[in-house]
Design goal:
The complex is a heterodimer of chains A (about 190) and B (about 240).
Chain A (H helix, E strand, L loop, with lengths): L13 H6 L10 H15 L3 H18 L18 H28 L7 H21 L6 H30 L4 H6 L3
Chain B lengths: L15 H6 L2 H10 L23 H8 L3 H23 L2 H18 L9 H20 L27 H9 L3 H12 L4 H7 L4 H20 L13
Helix pairs in contact in B: 3-4, 4-5, 4-6, 4-8, 5-6, 7-10, 8-10, 9-10
Classes of the chains: A mainly alpha (about 190), B mainly alpha (about 240).
Chain lengths: ~190, ~240
């Protein structure tokens, strides 16, 4: 409680009367509470290197968890003569990529949260969707050779891995009270 | 708590600037002369805000650099002015404590936006006023004020009664006022805001500010002269 007093003379005006009131003293421990909130805020900040590490770790985890087709990457141009004996294997590879693609789409659906997003994150998300859309349009074209299908499905899997990694990272940042934009510019 | 961070007596009447210059009247003139032309400049006969503490540029630079000790020092210097202002507006000690915390965290968060072309204390005070009024609006959809239907007298222009020299009695009378009325009185008389500025801050009209000032002064006078006459009608539609 502030100290009180009675002055010997009446105040000239209300300004003088109010100005004569002693300052109130806040409860003890105010600074400790502020310091604790600052520490908590600092712990929750998500630096760029950590965001990058999380993205890389997720991509690696996906790469290790899923059969990775790039070791048998199909040449971008030219016709590959596929021996009859290996057609069954290629058929399996295509099936594998269908499965990978489905799993990644399910993961993307879980990771994506469209209820709130920053402008930058939304733009990146739209760009990734456009990339997937272009691949899907290419896959819908009639008369695709098996090699072209393999190549396009491989691109689709890679695009989905990138999209799932981005969305997972964005959700993680949101859970930490941060945003993708902030992670992009944070320097500490 | 580091005692070295606490000023000997940070009050409107005894702030570090005042101590350093060795006399109140000279202090006020010199301080006013440094103010930004758009910053509040009270007439010479008005008391100086309790916020009017000059913060050295070096301390501000350390604050901008994110140094925790510099922030603690600023906190220690301004905690009482902020808490007092918040208590006068909100009328509740717990809410005033929260306003103090939120204000100081916003100061730290926005220090990069402080350009330095006006006194730091004025910038900090603006954040504190906004925080307190925002909290008032949040918790009371329409801040309670005195009814405006009655004829306004000019009570605020007459000298207060002798009982206003008793700070305890004046504090009790202030606490008995509706929150919006008390806020107008405090912002106008103690902090030196104009009616136009108060209207903007409270999202009302200058007429509202003038009416509340007149009626608030009248009510204060009644409360001080006749403490038994406390039960006067209030209105939330003002």
């Amino acid at each position: 409680m502030p100290e009180t007093s009675v002055r010997p003379h009446a105040p000239r005006d209300w300004g003088e009367a109010l100005a004569a009131l002693p300052l109130e003293t806040p409860p003890a421990g105010g600074w400790s509470a502020i310091a604790a909130r600052l520490d908590a805020h600092r712990r929750s900040r998500w630096p760029l290197w950590a965001a990058s590490a999380a993205t890389i770790a997720l991509a690696l985890a996906l790469a290790l968890a899923l059969p990775w087709p790039s070791q048998e990457r199909v040449p971008a141009t030219g016709v590959v003569q596929v021996p009859a004996a290996s057609r069954a294997v290629e058929g399996d590879r295509l099936e594998q990529m269908y499965a990978q693609s489905a799993e990644l789409e399910a993961l993307l659906g879980l990771a994506r949260d469209d209820r709130a997003s920053s402008g930058t994150a939304a733009l990146i998300s739209v760009a990734l969707d456009d990339q997937l859309g272009a691949i899907d349009m290419a896959l819908m074209q009639p008369g695709l050779s098996r090699e072209q299908q393999l190549q396009l499905w491989q691109q689709r899997v890679e695009a989905l891995i990138a999209a799932a990694g981005f969305e997972s990272n964005r959700r993680w940042l949101a859970a930490q009270g941060s945003r993708y934009d902030a992670a992009l510019v944070l320097v500490d | 708590m580091a005692d070295g961070n606490r000023l000997p007596d940070v009050t409107a009447r005894a702030c570090p600037l005042t101590h350093a210059m060795g006399g109140r009247d000279g202090d006020l003139r010199r301080f006013r002369s440094r103010q930004h032309p758009h910053q509040y400049m009270p007439p010479d006969d008005r008391p100086l805000s309790s916020f009017a503490i000059e913060v050295p540029a070096a301390l501000l630079a350390r604050l901008r650099a994110g140094e925790r000790p510099a922030f603690e020092q600023v906190y220690r210097w301004f905690e009482r002015p902020v808490y007092t202002l918040a208590l006068r507006i909100c009328g509740d000690r717990e809410e005033a404590s929260e306003v103090l915390q939120d204000t100081m965290l916003k100061v730290l968060d926005r220090i990069g936006h402080f350009r330095g072309d006006s006194p730091f204390w004025g910038w900090l005070r603006q954040i504190a006023v906004n925080e307190a009024l925002m909290r008032l609006r949040r918790h009371r959809l329409a801040p309670v004020a005195l009814d405006l239907e009655q004829h306004e007298s000019e009570d605020d222009r007459y000298p207060p009664p002798a009982a206003a020299a008793d700070t305890a009695a004046l504090q009790r009378a202030l606490a008995a006022l509706p929150a919006a009325t008390r806020s107008v009185l405090w912002l106008y008389h103690a902090e030196g805001y104009t009616h136009d500025e108060i209207a903007v801050l409270m999202e009302r009209t200058p007429s509202f500010s003038k009416s509340q000032l007149a009626r608030g002064a009248r009510r204060l006078r009644l409360l001080l002269e006749e403490p038994a006459a406390v039960a006067l009608p209030e209105s939330a539609h003002a």
